[in-house]
Amino acid sequence: MATTFTAAELDYLAGQRLGRLATVSADGSLYNNPVTFFVDPDSGWIDIGGIMMDRTQKYRNVQTNGTVSLVIDDIKSLDPWQVRGMEIRGQAEAVVLAVPLKPHQRPQIIRIRPRRILSWGVEEGPMRMLARSVTG
Questions:
Q1: Region of residue 121 (left: phi > 0; alpha: psi -120 to 50; beta: else)
Q2: Is residue 12 predicted with pLDDT exceeding 90?
Q3: I need a labelling partner for 17 at 20 to 30 A (CA). Which of 30, 69, 83, 88 fits?
Q4: What is the pLDDT of residues 59-81, one digit of tens each?
Q5: 112 near 91, Cβ under 8 Å?
Q6: Is-cis flag, bond preceding 126, omega within 30?
Q7: For position 100, what pLDDT does the model report?
């Protein structure tokens, strides 16, 4: 099993459905979109699929520049105020699967290999920011 994510991070990601993916276009401008995602705990990859993925700007951006950042966050409590989340920076590639992630999606996906992970409020105990580089 890969050690890309801590057990608490995997639990957090399993409970989330929506993130925001930032990509870089060919001219260097940034592009940010809400996305659903799937985490493979064994490989440490994050896969992003969609019903028209191969026709999206984010997919085209990844084909020319694979630098990405995915943010997943939420508000755990309003009173007391508690936020938590993760930013996953990494290298992405445009991949075509033999079988789509979901039946209604196309086989084209964006696959992220994390290189840097920042998390806050995810681990038990006092609120703290964790940051680490991922190798492999």
A1: left
A2: yes
A3: 30
A4: 999 999 999 999 999 998 899 88
A5: yes
A6: no
A7: 82
pLDDT of residue 44: 92
The pLDDT of residue 104: 86
Backbone angles phi, psi at 42, to 5 degrees: -75, -45
Please state, in angstroms and rounded to a whole number, the distance separating the CA atoms of residues 136 and 126. 30
> Under a CB-based contact definition with an 8 Å cutoff, are residues 72 and 83 in contact?
no
Q: If you write DSSP's letter for every residue of 34-90 in order, what string do you get?
A: EE--EEETTTTEEEE--TTGGGSHHHHHHHH--EEEEEEEEEEEETTEEEEEEEEEE
Provide the token pair at 130: 């964790």
Q: What are the φ/ψ torsions at residue 20 (nearest 5 degrees)?
A: -125, 120
CB half-sphere exposure, 61, CA atoms < 13 A? 20
The domains located in the chain, with CATH, are: 7-133 (2.30.110.10)
Q: Is 12 in a helix, a strand, or coil?
A: helix
